[in-house]
Structure formats: structure tokens, C-alpha cells
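Technical annex B. To support the medicinal chemistry partners, we prepared a structural model of the target in complex with arginine, based solely on the information shown next.
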Amino acid sequence: MTRSKPWGGRFQQATHPTLERFSASIHFDRALAGFDVRGSIAHARMLGAQGIVTEKDVATLVEGLETILSEIEAGSFPFDPALEDIHMNVEARLGALVGPVAGRLHTGRSRNDQVATDLALYLRDASEAAQHGTIQLRLVLLERAEEHLDTILPGYTHLQRAQPVRLAHHWLAFVEMLERDGGRFADLRRRLVRCPLGAGAIAGSTLPLDRDHTASALGFDEPTRNSIDTVSSRDLAAEFLAACALCMVNLSRLAEELVLWSTSEFGFVELADAFSTGSSLMPQKKNPDTAELVRGKSGRVIGNLVALLTVMKGLPLAYNRDMQEDKEPVFDGATTLRDCLEVTGGALATLRVNTARMRAAAQDPMLLATDLAEALVREGVPFREAHEAVGRVVAHCIDKDADLRSLSREDLRAFHPAFPAPASALTDLERALEGRSQTGGTARATVATALAHARERTQREARALGAGREVA
Ligand code: ARG
């Protein structure tokens, strides 16, 4: 396991075992294995095409690397913690498979441009998978929203009942958020189009590398434009984590509503048994753990973003070993988001909705106080004056414990002479909903159109992503 003089001729002593353990990254950067090997195959072929390594040796290298790729896929690759990181592991394995010719692979290359390449390839895949995850969840939300076009509940501001809305309209809000989240991952990929390979340790190489060759072999548009930036920067990784963190915050808010709505106090929804857990002590309990965990894990992904930004903020150019700390937050952010999108979809797809409880809560006549004020506006009363008058009506109802809807036209006129009809006629729930038919509103036809458009956009995005995936 222990190597003597792992860093070549300059070193007289072996690495101290404590440092060996401390500096090893193989236990996490093994996630880059497949990308690392693909990068090496592209690099080897370029060396051959440029006559830097003979075609015969390149064939040997590529054959060995392909064996390694199949070992990785089969789970039989012998990861060795003594070999520090994934790059050294692959190179050492190549040596074991093909002999001394393996020593030609690292020509014109450094682990600095190599790790940047691996990470770019990883981020390309991970951002595509994350975008795909947001699409899947949108499809679940759309299906549940379509089913609940006629389910009415109070919309809340300050967690106080505000105005009645359709459940479909409410869930479409999350569809919008998730569409922007997906867009952020797509947007990131527009910047992940330049290939780091060839930047070397910091300043390129004196060998006649063909960077365009490796770039196109790995599906990039072109090589990166500045070798120092290439090995120094992790802003694309931070951008990925920022997109993950924002998406997690949106999921967390959805989760919080599921927790809240599952309480006996609300009683709006019930998570399926398959997405809840019980208490080890209290037999009556059914807890919304799925939602709580999603809410909790948002903290962890925000932490990943902050960790990476903090690692980077004080670093001089170019590569610094601190940057090895970029990987765990990125990997964790990617897998946590993937899992959270998936379980949220499962919980929503199987959620039982208590439409009667929602409608009963939406019957609260106070939710239509704004409509009463708007009735006065239609009579030509300035809104501020109408707001004031209805405020007094509301205070009167609270004081007398009276139902707003029981007030006659005469009762209302004691507060403002312009009230055109009895309160019951001015505060009709259906009319309140149907009146809100402007773009973005909660009228039935408006929401139905919004649903259809959202579904169309989601399907278009899914098709575009699918097409991109085939090319990659
Ligand atoms: N494991 C290293 C990392 O993740 C690879 C690059 C190491 N480069 C170096 N010069 N030590 O950043």
C-alpha cells in the first residue's frame, strides 16, 4: 500500500502516513472516475494525432483505459487509498495493465487541468440530471393541479387567511419556481462549453498539443481561453451549487406547507403511509418526515454553497490544494437535490387532499373584504376611502360577532353611502374567483390556460433536454 518517493526524483522520503490519510481524496473523488478515464482517452488520442506519442503506444494506452472504464462500470476497479486521488489511481492501474508505456499518458498534462476537466464533465451531467429532476417534479405538480382545478382554499399572506384561490393556482406557483430552477441548470451548461485540458499546471505546454482536438472529442465547443483561469476557477461549480441551493429553498417551502397542511389544525392534506413515518412511542402519530427531511436538507445544500465560496474567496491564482475541498460539497449538493426532487414528487403524487376542509376554510367571508372595497371602487369611490370604510365594517362584525354576509344594504350604507347592494351579493365566493381573470389570476379559465401552457413548456423542455442527452 505504501509507496516510497511517490512524487518522483525530487523526494527523499515517503509521505508521512498521517499526511497520506489527510490529503487523500479517493474516497470521494472516485465519483469522477468515469470522466477521468474519458478525459485520458481523449488526451491520449490527441497525443497520437500530434505525433507526440506513437500510434502504437496510443493504442495500448486506450485499450488499457477502456479496460479501466469497464472495471469502473462493473464496480471491480481496485481503488487504492494510498494513491491519493482518482487521477493517480487511474494512472497506476494503467501501469499495472499495460506496463511502462502508461508513463506516456501524462505528457503535456497536469492534475490541475485534469481535475478541472473532470469537474466540468461532472457538472455538465449533474446539471442535466438536476434539470431533468425539476421537469419530473413539475409534471407531478401539473397532474395534481389539473385534478384540483375546482379545489378552493384560502391563499395566505403572513400565514393569515388572505383571499380565496384555486389549489391548482397555488401549485402552479411552484411549477413556475421549478421552471426557473431548471432554467438555471440549463443556463450553467451554456458556460460549460470550454475544455480545460491543455492548460497544464498553469501555463500550458511546450509540446505541440492540439487543444481543439481534445475539446471536441469531449463534446466541448472549444478550449478554455486562459490557462491560468482554467486551473484557478471554480465559479462554475459555485454556480451549480447556487442553482441547487435555490431549488432546495423552493422545495423546502413546498415541504413546509406539506408539514403545516398535515397538522390537525389545518387538516388540508395527508401524506400517504409510504411517505410518512410513525413514532416509536406514540401509537397515534403519523409524521410528515419526507417533507421535514427535504426542508432540513435545504440547510445542508445552502451550506455546501457557502463552504465552496468560503474555500475560494482568499485564494491567490492559480491552483491551490484548498480547491480539493470543492468536490464534496458539489457531489453532496447534486445527490441531495436529486433525492429531494424525487421524494417530493413521490409525496405529492400520493398526497390525499381534503378538499372539503380547504373549501370550508375558504368560506370565511372575511376573505372577501377586498372584494367589498372593490365594489365601492366600481361606484367611483377612491380605493383608500373604500378600504377605510370596509375596515370599519370588518371591525363592526368582529365586535358584534356578526357574519359579514348578513349585512343588508342599509347596514352597509351606515359605513359608506355608495354600497350598491347587500353584503351577500357583493361577497360571493364564485364571483370572487371568477372576477380574477387577468393573466396570472385565479379564475377557472385563467388557471386552466396557465396549466395548459405550463404543461406545453415543460414538455418542450423535456424534449430539448432529451435531444441534448442523445448528442452528449
Ligand atoms: N486531487 C486534486 C484536487 O482535487 C487534484 C489536483 C491536484 N493537483 C496538485 N497539484 N496537487 O484538486
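Notes passed to the chemistry partners:
Residues 25, 29, 85, 111-112, 115, 319, 321, 323-324 surround arginine (CB under 6 Å).
DSSP finds 19 helices and six strands in the chain.
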